[in-house]
Specification:
The chain has about 475 residues and is an alpha/beta fold. It is built from 14 helices and 27 strands. Helix 5 links the parallel strand 8 and strand 9. Helix 9 packs across helix 10. Bound molecules: glyceraldehyde-3-phosphate. The site of glyceraldehyde-3-phosphate has 8 residues, from loops.
């Protein structure tokens, strides 16, 4: 009834005193695959205490040594790519190849973070007083970046390893300690990743990983007085967390409704390829997935035809077979997607394919002639279902994009670079891609959402900076 995994605290693997576990259901078989500990609030308190103690000496550990350990962890992580990828396949139904890529990308991310940290944290600033009116040159201000303390990292199910290390790496290189609360689906992959950090030899208590029910330890963690920073990626929960959290820096990456605006002069084959890749990879379960296509009427028929031809070639089935479209993460997610599809059906959308579902597996579906009164025009399906809205002017497309409460990424396809830049400027999204589908990477690029899509900016450099505070010492000359 599912292999049982321990949680990680104070440098060791422990069973929870609760005696309870949480089941991880394989999205493909819909059977319990693994079980993780249902940690208690008391156990969270202990982890927080240990994190606080470990951080003090870690902050005094030379930066180059911190970097050295991160490089070691990155190498071990890559060595363990096969078993970790297997967990991703079983827990979140990520296609086998993509699961391996997630782990390799994570190792690269950790190495890059170590290098970037050494560069940017090795620099400070010297200011002199006489540039401000009324001052003599008698004050010297030395400022540098110092750690925040304990960072709480909460990654989502779709990248349980990569979106964990994108928080762990920056936190550690900057001299913080780290408490990880992985998503339930993906928790075992995350624990295995933590094991790689354990093998690298980080000090006890510096990294811990608590698992359990959100209802028991979720608010308790995010409102814990021992937490000095929260880095969260996920859905609406992030909005609730930001309202409840204390006065600590927050980094939030929440949902998106990334628009793809297609102009008449675009390369239509490039458009179709990016709509399929952007909208359907990992079955649409990416915050940066293309979630609405806003296309000029004159080229709509042609693009819809090209997209349909490509969708017909996608392999649908289990992640073990490296299928393109795999079961979505939970039954409730599949039900939610179905609800959006049925709403669009009732309101008259054109179904380019027949709607088909078996268990959590939903076949790829393009919905044409979607109108603004349909839920799918605005809501995020997080599944392999993509709406097409035909537009008669660029302004109409920009208006739809900006009327969304999300603002993560967007993309525009045109051969006219001046137009593309003007559209990018007009789109209220954290990033706009010109002639390519939205994507977070390369992982050192800034990554941020506007409006309900988030707070702050990520990407390796921005995350390192965000997990530090400025400390100044002023030398006053007589
Ligand atoms: O799901 C949210 C991720 O940050 C998206 O990352 O663009 O690399 O798939 P990705």
């Amino acid at each position: 009834d599912g292999e049982v995994y321990k949680y990680y605290a104070d440098g060791e693997w422990r069973a929870s005193a609760s005696g309870k576990t949480v089941a991880i259901v394989n999205p493909t078989t819909r059977q319990t695959q693994y079980r993780v500990q249902a940690c208690t609030q008391e156990e969270v308190n202990k982890v927080m205490d240990a994190a606080k103690v470990a951080q003090k000496s870690w902050a005094r550990t030379p930066l180059w040594k911190r970097a050295e350990l991160l490089h070691k962890a990155a190498a071990i992580l890559k060595e363990h790519k096969t078993p970790i990828a297997e967990c991703l396949v079983k827990e979140i139904a990520k296609p086998a190849k993509d699961a391996v890529s997630e782990v390799v990308r994570s190792g690269d991310l950790v190495s890059y973070t170590a290098e970037e940290g050494v560069r940017i944290l090795g620099e400070g600033k010297l200011l002199v007083s006489d540039s401000f009116p009324g001052n003599e040159r008698n004050k010297y201000c030395l400022s540098s970046k110092v750690p925040l303390g304990v960072v709480l990292a909460i990654p989502p199910f779709n990248y349980p390893v990569n979106l964990a290390v994108s928080k762990i790496g920056p936190a550690l290189i900057a001299g913080n300690s780290l408490v990880l609360k992985p998503p339930t689906q993906g928790a075992v992959a995350a624990l295995h990743m933590v094991h790689c950090f354990h093998l690298a030899g980080f000090p006890k208590g510096l990294i811990s990983c608590v698992t359990g029910k959100g209802s028991e330890i979720g608010d308790f963690l995010t409102m814990h007085p021992g937490v000095n920073c929260i880095s969260f990626t996920g859905g609406d929960t992030g909005i609730a967390i930001s309202k409840k959290a204390g006065m600590v820096p927050l980094q939030m990456e929440l949902g998106g409704k990334d628009a793809c605006i297609v102009l008449e002069d675009a390369d239509l084959d490039l458009v179709a390829a990016n709509i399929v890749k952007g909208g359907f990879s990992y079955s649409g379960q990416r915050c940066t997935a293309v979630k609405v296509v806003l296309i000029m009427e004159a080229v709509a028929d042609s693009v819809v035809e090209k997209v349909n031809a490509k969708l017909a070639k996608l392999k649908v089935g289990p992640p073990e077979d490296d299928c393109d479209i795999t079961p979505v993460v939970t039954e409730s997610s599949a039900n939610f997607i179905e609800g959006l599809v049925m709403d669009a059906k009732e309101k008259g959308a054109t179904f380019c394919q027949e709607y088909r579902r078996e268990g959590n597996l939903i076949w790829p579906l393009l919905l044409d002639h979607v109108r603004p009164d349909m839920r799918i025009a605005w809501e995020e399906p997080f599944g392999p279902v993509l709406p097409v809205i035909r537009i008669n002017s660029v302004e109409e497309g920009i208006h739809h994009c900006n009327a969304s409460n999300f603002g993560l990424q967007g993309c525009v396809f045109t051969r006219d670079i001046n137009k593309a830049i003007m559209i990018s400027d007009a789109m209220e999204s954290g990033t706009v891609q010109i002639n390519s589908a939205p994507a977070r990477g390369p992982d050192h690029f800034p990554f941020q959402g506007l409006k309900d899509s988030g707070i702050g900016s990520q990407g390796i450099t921005n995350s390192i900076n965000m997990m530090t505070k400025v400390k100044s010492t002023v030398i006053n000359l007589p």
